[in-house]
Amino acid sequence: MDAESDETTPAETVSLGKKDDDAVTSEVEAAETAEDADADDETADDPEAAADGADGAADAGDDAGDAAGDDEDDVQAAETSKAAKGKNAKVVTPLSKAEKRAAARIAAAKAARRRRTGQAIAGTLILLLAVGGAFAGIWYFGDRAEKNKVKCKPVGDANAFPPLLGGMNKALATEPTITASSDQIKTVRTTILIKGDCKTVKAGQTVTVNYVGATMKDGKTFDASWPRKKTIEIPVGQKQLGKQLQVIEGWDEGLVGLKVGTRVQLDIPGNKAYGDDAPEGYPAGTLRFVVDILDAKDADSSGLPAGLGG
C-alpha cells in the first residue's frame, strides 16, 4: 500500500505539471505587479519624473498628430494638382474626314492668295522696269544722242553773239565781271571759272575768244570784246613752237592745254603782259583777264588758221 502510494500515475503527473506551470505564472504576475507598484511609488515620490513622463507622452502624441497632418496635406496637394491639371488640360478631339477636307481647302485657298499677291507684285515690278527702261532708252538713244550729235559743233545762227557751240554752258553768253586783288603775282596764274568739255587747245592752234581785261590792283576794265559784240581769234602756244608771239606772253602760255568751252581767269604779272612801264595807251603792272574759249582751229599749210583768211 505504501509502495503504491509512492508511485504516481501518468494522469497525476500531467496534473501536477499543469499545477506547477500555473504556479510559475502566478509567481511572474505577482512579481510584475510588485514592480509596477514600486514604479508607482517611485513616481509618487518623484514629481519631476512624473512630469517628464507626462511630457514625453504628450510629445509623442504631438509627433504622431503632426505626421498625420503632414500626410493629409500631401494628399490634399496631390488631389488639388490633379484637379488643376484636369481643368486646364485641353482635350484634343480627332478631326473628322469632313473637317480635314475643309482645313485642306482653307490652306489651299490661302496658298493661292499668296501666289496671286506675289504674281501681282512681280508684274508691277516688271511693268515699272519696262517703263523705266523705255524712258532710259528714249533718253540714251534720243535726247542724249541728239545732244551728242551737235555737241561742240556750230548750231543756230553763225552770226549770233557769242557764237556758242552745241552743248556749251549757257553762262558763257553772259558777260563776266572782274574784282580787284592785292595778290603779288610772279607767274601766270589760271583759275577755271567754267569747265569746258570740248577739245583741248594745242600749241599752234588759233582760238576764238571773248574776254574782259582789267588792272588787278583796282579791278578797272581797260578792254573787252563784249561791248563790241565781236570775238577775236588769236594764235597761241607760239613760244613753245619757237615762233614769234602774236599776243602777250601770259595769253600765249595760259590758254594752251585748256578745253574749248572753258571760262578762265588769267592773272598775269607785268613782265608777261605790257610791262611795269608800259607804252602809252597800254595798262602797266599786273593784269587780270577773264577769257571764254569758244573754239580752237588748226592752221592750214599757209600758216593761217583754217577758215580764217583766204
UniProtKB/TrEMBL annotation:
EC class of the enzyme, as a word: isomerase
Keywords for the protein's UniProt record, in alphabetical order: Isomerase, Membrane, Rotamase, Transmembrane, Transmembrane helix
Catalysed reaction, written as an equation: [protein]-peptidylproline (omega=180) = [protein]-peptidylproline (omega=0)
Domain spans labelled PPIase FKBP-type: 204-297
Enzyme Commission number(s) from the entry: 5.2.1.8
Region (Disordered): 1-94
SUPFAM superfamilies from the UniProt entry: FKBP-like
GO MF annotations, alphabetized: peptidyl-prolyl cis-trans isomerase activity
Compositional bias per record (Acidic residues), positions renumbered to this chain: 29-49, 60-76
Biased composition (Low complexity): 50-59
Sequence intervals crossing the membrane: 120-142
Keyword Transmembrane helix among UniProt keywords: yes
Pfam families from the UniProt entry: FKBP_C
Top-rank taxon, per record: Bacteria
Family matches, as PANTHER family: 39 KDA FK506-BINDING NUCLEAR PROTEIN, FKBP-TYPE PEPTIDYL-PROLYL CIS-TRANS ISOMERASE FKPA
Recorded family membership: Belongs to the FKBP-type PPIase family.
Protein name in UniProt: Peptidyl-prolyl cis-trans isomerase
Taxonomic placement: Bacteria, Bacillati, Actinomycetota, Actinomycetes, Micromonosporales
